[in-house]
Each structure stands twice: as structure tokens, then as C-alpha cells.
Write a structure and sequence with these properties.
With about 250 residues, the chain is an alpha/beta fold. The protein is built from eight helices and eleven strands. The protein binds S-adenosylmethionine (SAM).
Length: about 250
């Protein structure tokens, strides 16, 4: 584990092609997190002609799903290389997707109150200033608009946590330092976090940061792993592989 976040501003530029393949094939994302996020979005209301921002969109997997359902989608990301991959993928959607290079902590290309919904899939842990990113979300949403996000579960993935094998052979998660908020990188771990690290926050920090910007939690989902994910990561037989929520911007917020 390292503590110093002297990483470049866009660490995904260095792993863009790897991440593009990962997001297509990794059951954690393709079978569990993205379907759960789309369900939360679809339950928020009809998507046809709604205006949605995919904040930290990466190579655009969620943005394309929303566009195919008839939404007007803007995807922003800090990684030029992931945006290039997003732009290179044709999508036969009713409305073209607008891809923009922008920092979620600022959202300089995003107008106030201009979106019915904002989605941020598995990216809040990549953003150093959570409060600034959530201020962007609250600023660009219209009153009553929804915010759907997915994050690594902060009670499971935390500094110094790791998979362990019990004497009976079962894989379990060894807890770490839950209260050590900040950047950490499980060096050598497979997957995204071993490559780019993460900004850990406690669950209460997430919930209080949402409340601070006027976003009310409407639903919370801790999805079950699929058989393919359990085969790859057996410890997820007993644990939720992610945490998702849908929030609403309070009137007057
Ligand atoms: C794990 S990827 C998720 C990408 C995409 N949402 C998906 O579902 O595949 C995290 C993303 O956050 C982006 N990111 C990190 N910091 C950012 C920032 N300050 N502003 C915008 N995007 C950022 C990264 O470039 C990367 O695309």
C-alpha cells in the first residue's frame, strides 16, 4: 500500500486499452454493477428524451446504454484516451452522445440545472475531492433530478484489506483500517485498484457529503455476485461486490 497520491491527473490514460477490455469482460462490471445501476436509473422514470450526464464516463459503456434507451447523454471524463475510445465506438442511438474532456470536480462544460439525471459509475473513488464532485452533481441537476452512483463497498474495500484463506479453505475478506480515509493502492492486486488505487472514505463520509449538497438518498443496493464472479472471486459469495444508490436533489437545494 502507498499513501502518496502523486499519481498523474488522468491515471487511466496509462491503462485505457486494458480498462476498455476489462469493462467489457469483467463480470463484476458487466454482470453485476452496470445492470444494477441501469435498474436504479430505469426505476427513476422514463428515459426517452431525458437529459443525462455520465460523470467520469470512461470509455462510455453506461452512456451508450442510456443513449440506446432514448436519452440525450453527455459523457465527461478526465482521461483523453478513454474519451478517444468512447468516440471511436459507433452507437445506433436516437440521439448522438456528447463526449467532453472535463474534470468532475469542476464541470466547466456543464450548465447549472441542465440535467434530469446524473450517473457516476465506479468513479467517485477515483476523484480526490468528493465534496467538489458532489457539488458539481447538485449544481448541474434540475430540482428533483436523480443521481445514481456505484462505488466499491467502503466497508469491504479499505486500506490494508485483502482476501484471505480460512483454514477450511474458504476465501474471506480480511478487514483493514476503515478509518484511514485517503488514497491507497493495494499494490500488486488484480483489477482496477491494484493499477490506479482509490480514495477511501467511510460510509458516513459518503452519506454526509451527499446530505451536504442537498442530495437525499432514495434507494440503496448491495448487489449479489453472479456465479461467474463468484468463480473468479470466491469471497463475493458472502459479500456485496459494490454499493449503489439513487439520490434526489431536494427542492431548493
Ligand atoms: C473505474 S473508471 C469508471 C469509468 C466508467 N464510469 C465506467 O463505468 O466504465 C473511473 C473513471 O473516472 C475517471 N476520472 C477520475 N477522476 C476524474 C475527474 N476528476 N473528472 C472526471 N473523470 C475522472 C477516470 O478517468 C475513469 O474513466
Amino acid at each position: 500500500m502507498t499513501n502518496a497520491p502523486d499519481a498523474p491527473d488522468a491515471p487511466y490514460d496509462a491503462i485505457a486499452e486494458w480498462y476498455d477490455e476489462y469493462v467489457r469482460t469483467e463480470p463484476l462490471l458487466a454482470e453485476v454493477v452496470i445492470p444494477a445501476a441501469l435498474r436504479l436509473i430505469e426505476e427513476a422514470g422514463r428515459l426517452q428524451d431525458t437529459v443525462i450526464c455520465d460523470l467520469a464516463c470512461g470509455q462510455g459503456v453506461v452512456a451508450r446504454e442510456l443513449a440506446l434507451r432514448g436519452a440525450h447523454v453527455t459523457g465527461i471524463d478526465i482521461s483523453e484516451r478513454l474519451l478517444a475510445l468512447a468516440r471511436s465506438q459507433p452507437v445506433a442511438a436516437p440521439h448522438a452522445i456528447s463526449w467532453r474532456h472535463d474534470d468532475a470536480q469542476v464541470g466547466r462544460t456543464l450548465a447549472d440545472g441542465s440535467f434530469d439525471g446524473v450517473v457516476c459509475n465506479m468513479a467517485l473513488m477515483d476523484i480526490p475531492d468528493l465534496a467538489a464532485a458532489l457539488r458539481t452533481v447538485a449544481r448541474i441537476l434540475r430540482p428533483g433530478g436523480w443521481f445514481v452512483f456505484a462505488i466499491t463497498h467502503p466497508c469491504i474495500q479499505m486500506p490494508h484489506s485483502d482476501w484471505m484463506t480460512r483454514p477450511d479453505g474458504a476465501t474471506i475478506r480480511g478487514t483493514g483500517d476503515y478509518f484511514a480515509e485517503g488514497f491507497w493502492q493495494p499494490v500488486g492486486a488484480p483489477g482496477v485498484r491494484g493499477r490506479v488505487g482509490a480514495h477511501h472514505r467511510t460510509l458516513s463520509s459518503y452519506l454526509n457529503a451527499l446530505a451536504d449538497v442537498g442530495l437525499s438518498v432514495e434507494r440503496v443496493v448491495e448487489p449479489l455476485a453472479t456465479p461467474a464472479l463468484i468463480e473468479r472471486m470466491p469471497g463475493y459469495r458472502w459479500l456485496p461486490p459494490a454499493l449503489l444508490s439513487r439520490c434526489r436533489k431536494r427542492d431548493g437545494a
